[in-house]
Predict the 3D structure of the following.
Amino acid sequence: MYAREIEADLTEVLVTEAEIHAKLAELARRIEADYDGRDLLLVGVLKGAVMVMADLARELRNHINMDWMAVSSYGAGTKSSGVVKILKDLDTDLTGRDVLIAEDIIDSGLTLSWLRENLESRGAASVEICALFRKPDAAKVEVDVKYVGFDIPNQFVVGYGLDFAERYRNLRDVAILAPHVYS
Ligand code: 5GP
Ligand code: MG
Ligand code: MG
């Protein structure tokens, strides 16, 4: 269904577009109920969370704001460095805000545990996390993630915003990247 050269780079589709959308709708119902009557600030982590943010935001039927951050932790490789650097900061003052970080995937957890602390230190009223994917077997630090889409095996996946060397973000599904691509 993708171009032949892309199909050759994928081992298997792990989660389909339809499954992703159904899950985001389910999470959105919980989020709406939890934040009833409060303006929520969705913080998207560029670039991987672009698709999650776009689809989750459109599922939510209450008031939301959106802002974006870019942090580096991976470069072009497949392993987290644990060193997080802000490449683009928020435009929004977080004082008193209810913040929900919209993330694509939690692997080691290093990026998100750092990010949560960073946002909390700016005086937010609350900071919670919504991550579409989580790899429980890869966790190096425990991160309390209130909204999780799918727990997946400890394999490198691409699609739906997730890249390898900036490719594959445009795939509608999430698929396991064939090892020949990165080894
Ligand atoms: P962590 O700090 O939790 O190890 O990973 C943070 C970031 O690494 C994620 O937000 C994501 O951008 C990237 N990452 C982690 N696992 C994967 C994966 O399986 N595939 C892709 N494409 N990126 C990943
Ligand atoms: Mg990310
Ligand atoms: Mg990446």
User: Anything to note?
Assistant: Residues 48, 73-74, 80, 103-112, 156-158, 162-164 surround guanosine-5'-monophosphate (ligand 1) (CB under 6 Å). The mean pLDDT is 94.
